[in-house]
Amino acid sequence: MNTAFRSPAVVEFGGGASSRIAAVAASLGVARPLVISDEFLTASGLLERVTAPLSAASIPFAVFGECEPEPTVASIDGLRDFFARGDFDGLIAFGGGSVIDSAKALAILVAFGGEYEQWSVPDTPDGEVMPIIAVPTTAGTGSEVSNACILKNGATGGKLVYLGGSCVPRAAIVDFELTLGAPAQLTAAAGIDALAHALEAYTSAGANPFSDAMARSALRLIGPNLRRAYGDPGDRAAREAVMLGATQAGYAFSSASVTLVHGMTVPIGGLFDIQHGVSNAMFMPTVHAFSIGNAPERYAIAAREVGAATSEHDDDAAAENLVEELRSLNRDLGLPTIQEYGVDQDLYFASLEAMAQQAFETGVPALSPRVPSTEQMVQLYRAVWDETWLPGGNPEMNELLRASG
Q1: Residue 82 DSSP code
Q2: Which of 191, 225, 261, 391 has a 20 to 30 Å separation from 376 between CA atoms?
Q3: CB–CB of 159/150 below 8 Å?
Q4: pLDDT (mean) for 47-74
Q5: DSSP H or E stretch at residue 276
Q6: Cα distances (Å, whole numbers) of residue 129 to 7, 36, 74, 208, 336
Q7: Cβ atoms within 10 Å, residue 349
Q8: β-bridge mates for residue 173, sequence order
Q9: pLDDT in tens, 356-380
Q10: Residue closest to 40 by CA, chosen among 3, 95, 113, 85
């Protein structure tokens, strides 16, 4: 199998790594960076972890601190205008995946011009853009090393997805100390997103030896440590493990791709304004239960890596344990079901066919161990609402999922 792999030229990892921001910028020839962040990080003082070293090194910079939690076309317009008024030669993205994705979208627009819609998949350019130094403050998206970027089109509610070499930052500084004290809810949502990346990459039809190594390591790191990081925001060992796992998961899905869970949650996030990691949590038990029969060995290995099974379990039992672990993890992390979140039932059911179509249009369901038919996709959306999944759950629904397609 031939596979392609792209990575930042520089990846620094470890507690306190963010203090090296000035040296990393200099190594990339970035002399006048624009620091991009959000209002919370700017007001909290955490942003000083990168601005203070820049000042100490006499590197001039400006700060745009108005990135939104889920970046939109409108929010990038504001960033684009701010950038155009300055004389910047690089970007430092300090924040979660939304901040880093904002930097990626800006870099694409500055390099290639045009408008947002024309560069979404499959037309994302692979050409060179200005240097981006990604400094993640959450352990989740893996955006600091990934080739992906997602924006929300505020006018339509849909998602614009960018995939390509232009989305890979030039450098990543992964400092787990930036996540110490992070709110439990943020830890849960981000950590589940990272787990979703690793599990989907490992069970993807695009899996390869490199992605497998990254995904399995990520599963080992995140599985036993996410509950600890959620329960104790100051647990350094757990925070470091989950942070490293999230970055490795970013490498894994960039190489192998995500699959059905991410495909199905793209329209959910756009239509109901649900944070990305939370929507992944809602869908993971149902969707992976639907798929385990087509890749029992892969799911069994994943179960053993996260600690949901041992070598004494046969593959079928281990795979079943993994589905239950996903369900239990959601409960333990306080992550809501789609009904508990308060999604409007009438709108949800009126949108089933449209959501299924949008999910297929992302392209990633085709890489799932079990590719659903259109009817199955609709029924999977119904099953998520009713909290039924294979095995167990509603027998009538399960039989329909088994039989259709």
Answers
A1: H
A2: 191
A3: yes
A4: 92
A5: helix 276-291
A6: 14, 16, 21, 28, 39
A7: 12
A8: 12
A9: 999 998 899 999 999 999 999 999 9
A10: 95
Burial class of residue 400 in the structure, from the number of CB atoms within 10 Å of its CB (0-12 exposed, 13-18 middle, 19+ buried): middle
Distance, CA of 100 to CA of 133 (rounded, Å) = 9
Question: Which tokens sit at 277?
Answer: 């990691």
pLDDT of 199 reads: 98
Q: What is the pairing mode between strands 159-163 and 148-152?
A: antiparallel
Whether the CB-CB separation of 298 and 369 falls below 8 Å is answered with yes
- The CA distance from 401 to 382, in Å, is 11
Cβ count near 281 (within 10 Å):
29
Tens-place pLDDT, residues 306-325 = 999 999 999 999 999 999 99
> Nearest Cα to 180, choosing from 239, 228, 134?
239
Spatial contact of 152 and 97, defined as CB atoms under 8 Å apart: no
Residue 68: its H or E element: none
Of 262 and 158, the one with more pLDDT:
262
Domains of the chain plus CATH, in order, are 10-179 (3.40.50.1970), 184-403 (1.20.1090.10)
pLDDT at residue 397 greater than cutoff 80:
no
Tell whether omega for the bond before 122 is within 30 degrees of 0, i.e. cis: yes
Q: DSSP letters of 384-396?
A: HHHT--SSSS-HH
Q: Could you tell me how far CA 80 lies from the centroid of its own chain? A: 24
**H or E segment at 275?**
none
Is 76 within 8 Å of 118 (Cβ atoms)? no
CA angle (179 as vertex; 174, 184 as ends), nearest 5: 145
